[in-house]
């Protein structure tokens, strides 16, 4: 049993992106599709080396801090503020499984670190999302089967109307 897509979007992805200063349905859609693919929306919290709902490896986690966030002190402080005060210093990688907002911020930072640019507020096609996911989360070319698997999962998420601020998402993304 995984996490409800609507609730994950409303209570985790949207507020996290808002705190990071991002207002983009395409970013929301990409993060939701990534969580859907990497962990089946939380059904698995560890696959291979990946940890948490986004399947972020310890190496990716370390790299985003050392090679990306270290260059932007304000953003690093914002992201660090999402991590737990006591557990993060003891076991930073475990935050990827236990802290959904922190994991979402790190997933978004990984996409930015890898050069993702969302120059519009439009929803992306499943193919565009698969391409962004490959660039962000894979260190190798993906097979046709992996691309199709990502696209099938992303296709289950259909954009609907954007809720007004402070209103329930109520169908922003609908699981088919």
Helices and strands, in order, run as HHEEHHHHHHHEE
Strand content: 5-15%
User: Measured on Cα atoms, how large is the radius of gyration?
Assistant: 15 Å
Question: How many alpha or pi helices?
Answer: 9
Termini separation:
16 Å
DSSP strand tally: 4
Major β-sheet profile: 2 strands, antiparallel
Record keyword descriptors for this entry.
mainly alpha; 9 helices; disordered C terminus; 4 strands; two-stranded antiparallel sheet; 6% strand; 176 residues
Structure description:
This protein is mainly alpha-helical and 176 residues long. The chain has one domain. 54% of the residues lie in helices and 6% in strands. The chain is built from 9 helices and 4 strands; from the N terminus they run ααββαααααααββ. The strands form 2 sheets. The chain has a two-stranded antiparallel sheet. Strands 3-4 form a two-stranded antiparallel ribbon. A hairpin with a 2-residue loop joins strand 1 and strand 2. Helix 2 (25-39) crosses helix 9. It is globular. The model is unreliable at 160-176 (pLDDT under 50).
Topology:
Blueprint (H helix, E strand, L loop, with lengths): L4 H15 L5 H15 L6 E2 L2 E2 L6 H11 L4 H8 L6 H4 L4 H4 L1 H14 L12 H12 L6 H12 L1 E3 L13 E3 L1
Antiparallel strand pairs: 1-2, 3-4
Short description:
The protein has 176 residues and is mainly α. It has helices at residues 5-19, 25-39, 58-68, 73-80, 87-90, 95-98, 100-113, 126-137, 144-155, and strands at 46-47, 50-51, 157-159, 173-175. The chain has nine helices and four strands.
